[in-house]
Amino acid sequence: MSILAVVTEEADIGPLLTWGGRLSLAHKLPFHIVRFKVDPKESEIESISLDVAFEKDEITEKIRVDARAREPQPVVFRLKHPRPYDAITDLIKKEKHKLLILGLHSKEKSFNTEWKINIREKAPCDIMTLRAQADSGSKCDRILIPVAGGPHCRVALRWADPLTESDDATISALHVARDFGEESLVVGLRQISKAVKAAGVTPEEAIHPKVVLANSVKEGIAKAAKDNYDLLLVGASNRGFLRRTLMGTLPEALLEGPEGISIAVIRGARPFTARLIDAFSLWMEQRVPQMTRDDRIDLFERMTESSVANFDFLALTGLATFIAAIGLIQNSAAVVIGAMLVAPLMMPMIAAGLGLVQGNAVLVKDCARSIALGFSLAFAIGLFCGLLFAQGLIYEGDPAEVIKSGQLLARTKPGILDLIVALASGVAAAYVNARPNLSSALAGVAIAAALVPPIATGGISLALGYPAHSVAAVTLFGTNLVAIILGASFALWIQGIRGNRDYSKSKVWAQRGFVALVIFVLFLAFFLGSHILASFTNPAKAPPAKQSEQNPGEKPDLVTEPK
pTM of the prediction? Predict the structure, then answer.
């Protein structure tokens, strides 16, 4: 375990060496420094001395003396590589670095360098982005850390805590609260106490609570930072918040102050599951054709239009349900298949999958409204047709016999195979819609994913007095609905559809929604497949073999020969 500082610009040398050195001494970890240069033609890494790595005019003699005096002394590398992200990531994994420190200038271009964006978001260790003046870090007496209960503020507290012993620094844990009365301060203090306990900082007395009343976090930090702090350490992962913290008007005012406060944003290492998903995503990108920008725009436009429950959508849904109801009552597979081809319910489900991948709450709400209206209309028409049939107005037949017919009965027995077919149909439907040249396959997908027939079966069964059959048919539709949305999300994701990079509320909502769908599908799979599992684990419950043409359990008739 060690701390790594990557130096790419001359202005970053002093702050990185000073603050990196302080943290390495406080945590008793080796300190590695990399002088990095992007070289499109050459790839090499070599260990060099501090004097060779940095010229005398790049860092002050004091910083050089301090670095030499450390035990152990910093290990310095010179690294050239055409792909900075790959080179630094490989170095972190090889040397098992615990913290990566990057410098940042006031230039927006430096912040938005592609490899720096990737390394900040995907580094396999904790990462700190530091913006400071060249002579910063000469003293470390007071540190300000905003806490809001998130995981990254706890990381900031854990990295800063040892500085209270090595540098005699004092840490102020800041909570920004709105002024809603006398209780504001008490609530703020409790929030700070919870954050400190969650970080595992001991003793807690080393952390001084500080509550500031303000209308926004930015305003609260600006108020608190005026008290001559040496370091403002913010725990955050949101790319937009990170930019505002390091590049906005607030840091400019703080950096230009008389004391020259240093500002750092720290993010905890990405969890193993997130890194596993990234690796899988990269593997899929190399093997699945990715959608171009124009393809993604066209798909989004088509899905947005398909998610609206307009007159065409409702008319086709109603007609498809009526056709399906007639086919179910007549036990005609051909008519039921025709209804599947007419029904438009599949499109808002695919659009919901797109909205889930993008974190587009508006699109998902529109799709949910369309699906709810389509289901209500289809169920009402199925119920109406069932009532007409019960009165003998559209078809003459015994309802008890019709309800046992193949087409109706097949929609009242949802099973694990129906779930698997719906998942595959969702994947196929989304993939076909993303590839206009494959539109000829849409008819087959519509037939495979039967949506209107189960709804019509639910309405007919309820009208004929079979509520259990109605519930089973609606359950089949719900199974198809969830599985299709999940399958569509997966198909669009592997083709390159992604949401906003920023860790916003919409992204959190989308992730939680996707996880909820996965859990629900797993529950359905367990529920629908439980009877199959039971037949394997308890063969005694399997249906007995027929002993004769008579009913099971009856003794066979004795056959006597004629005298």
Answer: 0.63
